[in-house]
Structure formats: C-alpha cells, structure tokens
C-alpha cells in the first residue's frame, strides 16, 4: 500500500493564493482577518493540504489496484538454467535421505532428475545448488509427473517416478543412477491423463485420472486394481498421507469426492458451485482442508463443516490454472494463471491475509510445486526453473 504523504509546515505543494481562497470560501472569513490570526491560518492550511493530498492518494489507490498488483510482481528468488522448455516440474514430497531435495522436470521427450539445496538450508551455499543426477529420454512430451516414496539417495540410490503423456500411457521409470534403468508402460486409459500420484507410505500403487471419466489405481506391474467411474473428466487426484484406502478425486464439472478404496464407494463429496474446475489439492499437513481453482477463483473447504466452500475469492483475470498447498505451512498455498500467454502469473496466498502475500510472473510458465520443508515453490519456464521463497 502507498504510504500516506507526510505533511510538513514547509509544504509548497499548492500556492498560497489558492490555499487562502479554499480556506476562506464558504466560511465568511476574509483573507486579511485570516492572516491576522497566524495560528488559525496555519492550521487551516495544513488541514486543507492534507485533505487534497489524501483525495489524490485515495483516487490513485481506487483506480490503480490492478497496476499496483502488477508493479509489485516479484522476480524469482532463484533461477536454474535448463536446456529446453520446461513443461512440468515436481519436488519430491518425500525425504531423499540426504540434506538435498529431489526435483524432476520434464518437457519435449526428456526428464531431468536432480537435487536442490538452498542457502536457507546450508549457510555455505549462495542461492541454490542444483546437481543433475540423470537425464532420461522420454518418447513424448511429459504432461504430468509423480514421485515415488521409494526414491532415495542414501544407502543404495534409487530413483522412481511415473509420467503421463499424450499417448494415454503411464510410464514408470526406475533407475539406480548407474547401470540399471527400467521403463514400465501402463495402458488402459482411453483419453488424456491429467494427473497422477503414488500411494505415499510404501509407493506400491499409483492412481491416475483422465478425460475418459475414470480414476484408475495400478500396481507397479501395470495391472489395474481399481477403476472408479466418474461423471466428468478427472482433473486431480490426491492420496491421504496415512490412511492408504482414502483417495480424493476432483472432477471438471466442479465436484470433489473422497473414495474408500476397499468398498470403492464415495464417502464424502464437495461442490464448487461452478465449473470448470481446473485443479484441486488436499492439504496433507491438515487433511480437513481442501483447495481448488475454478474459473477465476480459488476456493477453500473445511470438510468437517460443509460441502460448500468456506472461502472463495477471485485470483486470476485470465482464468486460474493450478492450486497447490504448501507442505511447510497449512495456511499457505499458491495459484497460477493459465499458461500460454506472454507471461504466467503466480500468486502466493495466506489464509490470514485478504490479498496475495506475493505475486510473481514468469514468461510462459508451466507447472507448480512446493518444497518439502521450505515455504518455497517452483515453476518451469522457457529454459529455466524459477523459485520463489515466501516469508511465513
């Protein structure tokens, strides 16, 4: 917010003649009488000057809300150069067994896996230290990616993640970063796959949602163990961090359902009240909270209170695209605008603040992911990764 102007006795913002006219008009006070009372003259001068400047400030604030948001757009805290356009980027939500975090990013026919360590985690580092572990060839452009909890770098290094591509297939990639490298192709979806996630405790199952109106659960051999029939395209899927039989599935028409995988029945549903729903996320540090973006708005539910959103606010002028909860703070979340324009807007929100606590912008940004322990998120861009650190 713009600071109020500081008014001093020596202000020369306005001419004395205009001030005298303004102070005396309508009051029946002559200018000569006013000048013969210097204290009253000074007081009226200060009051009038403050009133006019406050009007100017108020007008600028009312008419300049959008421009002020744009002007406050913050550059990334850190950037990492890449060789090609980044379409998806994901921090591993699981510990790597080392101080560094695993991160994967993908684009046209490639996936790069590396480690990130930030100066907030190690005082000997300046900015960010990013080390590439391996680049994987991928037959098609990567459209979605999920990490397995089995990925670790201590003991015997193991990297395991799953991707989705436009050929409607999942690919499970496993590597020891040495000689062993396996790719398991999983087929079954009949349309575009929008999102996927590993079961978070042991990583022996994968759930995926698709435009074919299904959520499918797979074992690591590529067998379907469960198929949930949806009423519209599946947009997002999240697994409960501890109760492995609970799955959240968000549909494009604006409904979010929670399923019991034992009975394969919905046990709870939430309603956006609008569509299309573009992205939804389960707050895994406080599982009574669910968030989503639909249209221009972000929406928050407390699932113990109502099936309708507890909070709803406009976020992006050109439609919202992604919603992700921070893993470091249950009240912190990020939204992005739709990619493909000159620049993509990142907004970081805190439930205790009426306005975004940070605004970022990246040319043609894509993807969104939060660090496992820091209030830091990443977006992919044209030949770079952009990281924003947020004050909690």
From TrEMBL:
Keyword annotations of the record: Cell cycle, Cell division, Centromere, Chromosome, Chromosome partition, Kinetochore, Mitosis, mRNA transport, Nuclear pore complex, Nucleus, Protein transport, Repeat, Translocation, Transport, WD repeat
GO cellular component assignments: kinetochore; nuclear pore outer ring
The keyword Ribosomal protein is annotated on this UniProt entry: no
InterPro entries for this protein: NUP37, WD40/YVTN_repeat-like_dom_sf, WD40_repeat_CS, WD40_repeat_dom_sf, WD40_rpt
SMART domains per record: WD40 (SM00320)
WD repeat windows: 186-228
Pfam families attached to this UniProt entry: WD40 (PF00400)
Location(s), subcellular: Chromosome, Centromere, Kinetochore; Nucleus, Nuclear pore complex
GO biological process, one term: chromosome segregation
Known role: Component of the Nup107-160 subcomplex of the nuclear pore complex (NPC). The Nup107-160 subcomplex is required for the assembly of a functional NPC. The Nup107-160 subcomplex is also required for normal kinetochore microtubule attachment, mitotic progression and chromosome segregation.
Summary of subunit composition and partner proteins: Component of the Nup107-160 subcomplex of the nuclear pore complex (NPC). The Nup107-160 subcomplex includes NUP160, NUP133, NUP107, NUP98, NUP85, NUP43, NUP37, SEH1 and SEC13.
Protein name: Nucleoporin Nup37
């Amino acid at each position: 917010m713009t600071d109020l102007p500081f008014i001093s006795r020596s202000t020369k913002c306005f001419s004395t003649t205009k001030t005298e006219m303004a102070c005396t008009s309508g009051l029946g006070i002559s200018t000569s009488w006013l000048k013969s009372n210097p204290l009253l003259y000074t007081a009226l001068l200060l009051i009038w000057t403050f009133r006019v400047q406050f009007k100017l400030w108020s007008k600028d604030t009312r008419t300049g809300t959008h421009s002020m948001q744009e002007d406050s757009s913050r550059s990334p805290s850190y950037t990492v150069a890449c060789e090609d356009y980044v379409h998806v980027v994901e921090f591993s939500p699981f510990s790597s067994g080392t101080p560094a975090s695993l991160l994967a990013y993908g684009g046209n026919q490639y996936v790069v896996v590396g480690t990130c360590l930030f100066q907030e985690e190690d005082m000997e580092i300046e900015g960010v230290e990013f080390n590439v572990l391996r680049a994987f060839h991928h037959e098609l452009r990567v459209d979605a990616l999920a990490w397995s909890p089995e990925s670790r770098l201590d003991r015997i290094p193991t990297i395991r993640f799953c991707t989705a591509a436009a050929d409607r297939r999942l690919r499970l990639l496993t590597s020891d970063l040495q000689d062993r490298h396996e790719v398991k192709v999983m087929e079954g979806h009949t349309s575009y796959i929008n999102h996927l996630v590993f079961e978070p405790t042991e990583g022996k199952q994968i759930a995926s949602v698709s435009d074919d109106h299904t959520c499918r659960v797979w074992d690591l051999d590529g067998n379907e163990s469960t198929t949930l029939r949806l009423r519209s395209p599946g947009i997002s899927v999240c697994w409960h961090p501890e109760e492995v039989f609970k799955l959240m599935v968000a549909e494009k028409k604006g409904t979010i359902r929670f399923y019991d995988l034992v009975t394969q029945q919905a046990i709870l549903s939430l309603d956006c009240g609008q569509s299309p729903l573009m992205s939804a996320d389960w707050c895994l540090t406080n599982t009574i909270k669910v968030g989503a973006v639909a249209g221009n708005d972000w929406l928050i539910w407390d699932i113990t209170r109502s099936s309708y959103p507890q909070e709803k606010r406009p976020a992006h002028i050109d439609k919202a695209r992604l919603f992700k909860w921070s893993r470091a703070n249950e009240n912190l979340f990020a939204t992005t605008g739709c990619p493909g324009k000159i620049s993509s807007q990142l907004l970081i929100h805190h439930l205790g603040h009426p306005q975004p606590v940070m605004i970022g912008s990246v040319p043609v940004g894509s993807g969104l992911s939060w660090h496992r322990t820091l209030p830091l998120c990443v977006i992919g861009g044209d030949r770079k990764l952009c990281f924003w650190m947020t004050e909690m």
